Amino acid sequence: MPDIKHFDPDAALERVERLFWQHGAEASIQAVATATGLSRSSLYTTFGGKRELYLAALRRYLRHRAQPAFRELGEDGRGLPAVGDFFRGLIEARCSGEYAGWGCMVVNAHVGSEGGDPAVRALLDEHHRLLRDALRAELEAADRQGQLAPGVSTDAAAEALALLAYGVNLRSRGGADAQALLGTVDAALSLLGR
Fold this sequence. Notes:
Elements: H1 9-23, H2 29-36, H3 40-47, H4 50-74, H5 80-95, H6 105-111, H7 118-144, H8 154-173, H9 178-192
Helix pairs in contact: 1-2, 1-4, 4-7, 5-8, 5-9, 6-7, 7-8, 8-9
């Protein structure tokens, strides 16, 4: 007879994602059990150990939060205005509202001990590639539309902007002022434009 779950695994994983996003992989399995309302045995039976649970939460974060934002950015087609809007949305999400001060789960993993795990590192590298590629797509659109300054390398600029996004996430977690972050983004984009 198959095991019948008396809870929604995706809803539980969403709560786990939020816990690890806010507190990092160091959050205890007891904190996970409390956040989900599930027993440790239910968690282990459904998701595996704490490492597997963290990886599932990180994959969920990428699938539900990062990838849709990157897809929207990369398909926008307006060039530099789209990049500016991406950063403004990022800063707003990181500095106000429900997730203010949480930073980005991916950036948090980069600076946490979990970043040394090869499986975590692979997900972090995937995130970076997707972010960089979305930024490059908009920079290429900007170049086609004559928005970029002469000599700007779309590859190098996409890499620099990806690093700027990580910096915004890290600084917002530390309580940086949204207007200061916006000023930095505007300055960076002005260096790329005509």
